[in-house]
Amino acid sequence: MRNRFIMRYTSLVILATVLLSAVSCNKGETYADQKEKERKAINAFLSRDVALCNSNGDTALYVGRINVISEDQFLRQDSMTDVSKNEYVLFSGTGIYMQIVRKGAGEKLGHGQSKRIITRYLEYNILTDSVQSRSDVLYYSTTPDIIDITNSYGTFTASFNTENGGGAFYRIYNSTAVPKGWLVPFTYVRIGRQVSADDKIAKVRMIVPHSQGQANAQSGVYPCFYELTFQEMRD
Predict the structure, then answer these.
(1) Gyration radius of the chain's alpha carbons
(2) Which of 87, 98, 122, 167 could form a disulfide with 227 if both were Cys (CB 3.0 to 4.6 A apart)?
(3) 31-232: CATH topology
(4) First-to-final CA distance of the chain
(5) Residue 74 has pLDDT above 90, yes or no
């Protein structure tokens, strides 16, 4: 009798486990499903005539239809993208797309060098089709995000500086980790300050897949579009 009860109890437990697993599989997406959704969202974004809008419906940034070029073509063009053709280079190893709007004033960050950089940004969630956060507005004009960055043989390491409470990105995501995707431009852009009317600080636009993005993007498996500016901070 006791053995029959144990067998029946065990069967019920196994049945319940199978049913719960089936419900979970039906309700949830696999990581592969999420990555496929992300890939489709990026491809749709590339081919759309995109205007990024704020929650009130105003256009925050016009992106347009993107013309993708290879890394080889990018290098043949002196590591530049033709903005008049709305070119973005695809870095196939990471899935990042980047447009260099301006290479910037000053010099590239050399091996062994460290700098403190002011960055302002617009972050757009491609999956939800909405501006997610930004610091390129008057509210954050006196508290921009500040990045401490070092170049070691072409490998860049960086963190957000929080000495004065940090900027918008740090406050929103509560992390000093700079998204890996944000470090890609430093191989190509110059970091300086605007000291004359002709000087322009570095400016890039990027599509960053979740694997190269901030922690929320990584866990939620969603891609973001960024517009970023970089300016050397005064000592």
Answers:
(1) 23
(2) 122
(3) Chitinase A; domain 3 (3.10.50)
(4) 83
(5) yes
**Among candidate residues 53, 36, 215, 221, the one with its CA nearest the CA of residue 124:** 53
- Of the chain, the percentage scoring pLDDT greater than 70 comes to 87
Report domain extents, the chain. Answer: 31-232
What confidence score (pLDDT) does residue 171 get? 92
Residue 165 half-sphere exposure toward CB, CA atoms < 13 A: 5
Cα 145 to chain centroid, rounded: 15
What's the whole-number mean pLDDT along residues 192-201?
80
Residue 25 structure tokens: 């599989």
- pTM of the complete model: 0.86
CA 59 to chain centroid, in Å, comes to 20
Strand 50-53, strand 67-69: pairing = unpaired
CB atoms within 10 A of CB 114: 12
CB distance 109 to 206 below 8 Å: no
Instruction: List the beta bridge partners of residue 150.
Output: 114, 157
Q: Is the pLDDT of residue 28 over 60?
A: yes
H or E stretch at 145: strand 145-152
Q: What is the DSSP code string of 74-133?
A: HHHTTS---GGGTEEEEETTTTEEEEEEE--SSB---TT-EEEEEEEEEEEETTTTEEEE
Is the pLDDT confidence value at 217 over 60?
Answer: yes
Nearest C-alpha neighbor of 210 from the set 196, 224, 199:
224
